Structure formats: C-alpha cells, structure tokens
Protein: Threonine dehydratase
Organism: Aquiflexum balticum DSM 16537
Amino acid sequence: MNEKTNFPTLEDIKAAHQRIQPFIHKTPIMTSEAIDKIAGCQIYFKCENFQKVGAFKARGAANAVMKLTDDQKANGVATHSSGNHAAALARAASVAGIKSYIVMPSNAPEIKKKAVKGYGGEIIECVPTLEARETTLEEVVKRTGAVFIPPYDYVDVIEGQATCALEMWEEGIAFDTIMAPVGGGGLLGGTALTTKYISPNTKVIAGEPEGADDASRSFKAKKLIPMVGPKTIADGLLTSVGKINFEIIMQYVDDILTVSDQEIIEAMRLIYERMKIVIEPSCAVPLAALLKNKEKFKGQKVGIILSGGNVDLGKLPF
Amino acid sequence: MNEKTNFPTLEDIKAAHQRIQPFIHKTPIMTSEAIDKIAGCQIYFKCENFQKVGAFKARGAANAVMKLTDDQKANGVATHSSGNHAAALARAASVAGIKSYIVMPSNAPEIKKKAVKGYGGEIIECVPTLEARETTLEEVVKRTGAVFIPPYDYVDVIEGQATCALEMWEEGIAFDTIMAPVGGGGLLGGTALTTKYISPNTKVIAGEPEGADDASRSFKAKKLIPMVGPKTIADGLLTSVGKINFEIIMQYVDDILTVSDQEIIEAMRLIYERMKIVIEPSCAVPLAALLKNKEKFKGQKVGIILSGGNVDLGKLPF
C-alpha cells in the first residue's frame, strides 16, 4: 500500500449511475414481516438477483466498458472468470457493440458458458488452474489488443458496484446498517464508499463464509492475507479480497462477520420459503451473519444486498 | 343448473377489494425479456406467490370472513383443506379475531399444519379420504356452530379471488389475454368476471394439467364431469371444478388448454431460472399452455397469474 489509490467520489458514483442506468435494472427492495420477526429488526433486501445477468456484476462491467475511450474499445475487452463477471462483461461489451474474450476453465458449468455465448462473447478455454487462466488471458490480450477488465480489483468496476447502494439510499430509508457479502470486495467496497459518503454514521458490515474468511482475517490483522484452499457452499465468495478493495475496506467497513455453511443454508432456505425468491448461496451470507448476531442489530433498519440469483437448481442444498 | 347464481358484479368486486386491502399485499407485476423472446409475446406476471400466506387464497378467505355478520362470526369459521386455503382461512380468522377450525387429513405435510397453527387455527385431523373430511367437518360445524367457508365453490370466495385481476387492470395495461390455472375454479372464475366486466374483448384462457383435466373436458361437453383419480405434479389443481365456478367458466371463459407434467416442469424451470422467483408447480401451468400454443398469442400482451409459491423445496422437479 505504498501508492494511495484514488477512490471514486460520490460525484463519480452518481455519474456512473447515470452512465449505466439505461443498461441495468433498478432492482426492487423487498421486505418480509416473517423474517423481521425472526431477526428482531427491520430488513430491506435489495434484490440484485433480479439484476441483468442475474447479479450485481452487471453494474461494474457496464461501467468499466462504458468508460473506455473509443480507441480502447476498438479491440474489445477481455477477462478470466468462471462466474457472473464473465456473463456481465460479455453483455456489457455486446451492449457497447464491441468484442469480448472470456477465458474460462474447461470445467466451467455449461450454463455459464451458454450465458457468455448468448451475449456474443468469445470463450477461450484453459485448464482449470489460476496460473493457466492468467497465462491464457495474457496471450489473448497480446494477440487481440483487448483491454483487460478484472472482476473486482479495479476502480471502475468498484465504482459501478457502488451504484447499488446509491439506489438503496435514494429510497429515503434511514439505514442504521448496510450489509453485503464479501468475496473479492467489489460490491462491499462500492457499498462502503457510497454509504459512508451519504451517511457516515451508518454501519457497513460484511458477511463472509468461515471457509473463505480471508477478508475477516485480513481485516483483523490489518494486512492482506490471501486465502489458500477456500471451501464453502457460497461459490461466489471463493476469491481472495483485492488490493484496492482491501484499502477501501480498511478505511470504510465497520466489521466482517463470519458464518458456517450450515448457517448459510438455513438463511438461504428462509429467503426461499418466506420471500419466494431464488438466490445463490453467497446472497444468504449477510442474513446468516445478522441472525447469528441478532443483538448487534436489534430494532435497527438494516439494508441487505442480495447479490445474485444464478444457482444450479439441480443442486440446491435443501 | 336449475337455480341461477347471482355472480358478483364489478361493484361487488371493487367493494371486496376495499374490504380486504388492509389485510393483503398488492402484489407486483413482473416481466422477463428472456421469456418474452422465447414466447413471442409480452407477458405480465402477476406475482401472487408474494401474497400473504404465499398464495392468492388469502384474498378469497379474507373476503369471506370479513363479510360475515357479527352473529355469524361469534362461533368462528371452519373448512377442510390440506392446502393453501387452510392457512388462508386460519389467517383471515386470526385477523378478524375469531376462531378457525381446520379439518386436515392426517397425512397433510407438517409445514402446512405448522402454517395453520402459526395463525392460531385449531386443526382437527381425520383419515385421508374425502368422505372422512366431509363427515369430520360436519361434526365440527355441529359441535362448534362455526360457519363453513368452502375453498372455491362459494360466491364470497370467488369475489375475493376476483380482486387479483382487478389489481392487474388498475395497472393500465391493455391485455389481449389473461391466463390463470384452473383447479376448483375460484381464481379462474373471479379472473373471468373482473376481466369481462372491464374489457369484454380480452380473452380469458385457463391452463390445466392433462392429469387433472376435468375443467377442460367439462368445458367441451358443456356439463360438469368430475375428475376421478387425478394425477399431476401441479398439486394445487387436483380438485374438480365447483358448480358455481363452472357456471362462470361456461359464461365467461374463452378456452381451457391442457399441458403435460413435463411441459409444466419446463415452464416452471424457466420461471425459476429467468425470473429468479419461487413458484409452486400449479403456477407454471398457464405459461406452459402459452408456450405450447405460441401462435395463438403471437405479439399479444398477456397477463398470467402466478397463483402461489408454497412448494416443498426438497422436492423440486429439477
């Protein structure tokens, strides 16, 4: 952390929202009396599972692509991802009328590949190791001249994800706490920036799986400790926190609470049964953290970002 | 059909809506570009899966209970049901501050019993035959003096279910067709009344499972043919059409389209995957019927009522 990153300002985030608004959904906020009763507080769920491509990732990818100059756009964009960022970037590129190259591990689920292809993305397969992904991406960038858009450790992506909390604040609710899950830290970082700019006294608290708790451990140690061998049902949160993301977290996030897979599954089931919506396991992590620490949130107005709804229906843990 | 039933008028339906509004959700209408593209028309899904007790049944039960005189209310209400009507009636009674007696077959799912108890309903178990249910109900009514509120073959219940289509029309959409599933015919009857009163040229079309196709066969034969041995994954549509309901259907419904269980499962999966919402199999029947008969709906604005979201998550057919 020798170089100080210039974080996006509130004006930057508002401009990002203007920029991407035509290409994303303004997702609804849902509430559930039944869950409030169980939780002992008032929860406002921001439903990014209803977002384009089924996840908040549509925001950051759209913002990053729209901010490219025409020269940069000329050769398209590239990334490596087996998850929601892959589809989000392919879609953003398609909307912008440019090419996208997505490096995916050969064992990525067919449905993820289909989504990328559906948006006109070109898939380059590689063996399923991080090293192969990075080498293959380098080759693709070299060959095509495409701009690499990383999934989270990238200011324009964080700025895009920050628009989700902006929409929440525009609803006029006086949140005591806003919660998001943390994987790479793009959503959490953006949420923290927006929230602390608008309402410095509102707490920003993350939920993280015990089996991928690098953010929590790094937060406590005040230095970045990458995750080795993560293992959790919350497959969207396996990645380690990014560098820029960690800087923002250290400055603006109040706490990171960890939960077990069993607690994640119970919170997930509660959301399916009581709210009748489809979410991926990662989404249930903040609610699980809240239910595990009820006394911290008693009587509060809590905003929870449900990050996405791309789940393999044949493998639900119920 | 010797006696002519007095169907609820549009004014009756509007009054019912006023009456029950404080006790029900105004459910949202959702759309999906992806499904529209597949279907070749514009579909507006009315999400009664987000309704109180997780189904449109909350409307009819609330209306029937609120319309009782104080004398009638004194001894409470009773019904026999293993499904959504049981919870809906228990809840309506609880809101009205009166007792409810629910006759349930001993093999009813625990979760359904729990829902009834959660609303303070008194469960009276019986052996799982229709005869036992009816006899037990008679005994309960005799013993307690409670008023029997049937699940669908009852004008005040139909009037309540009719408020769902009323909310759809209030959105200002010029529907060419409105679709609902048909089981007992409470929702379909109410939907047909409201729609034909407001927009006589709009078609009202029902979807029905092939394995419980008494409404379709009765409709063609122009006489009520009860179902024997129904078998379908759409467990909310196993019952035979009621008498009053059939009168309304013959007068106001344009067509009843049948679909196989496989077609129901495919439409259900489409709704889970593309719309990220939880529905019960019965809900998917109209969409399945539309997708099977695309040419009938080409380019139209179609309203589809998603009737409920109470599904056993451990038994999803994916």
Summary: The two ends of chain A are 43 Å apart (CA to CA). The beta strands of chain A are 29-30, 42-47, 77-80, 100-105, 122-126, 147-148, 177-181, 203-209, 255-259, 301-306. Chain A touches chain B through 17 residues (CB under 8 Å).
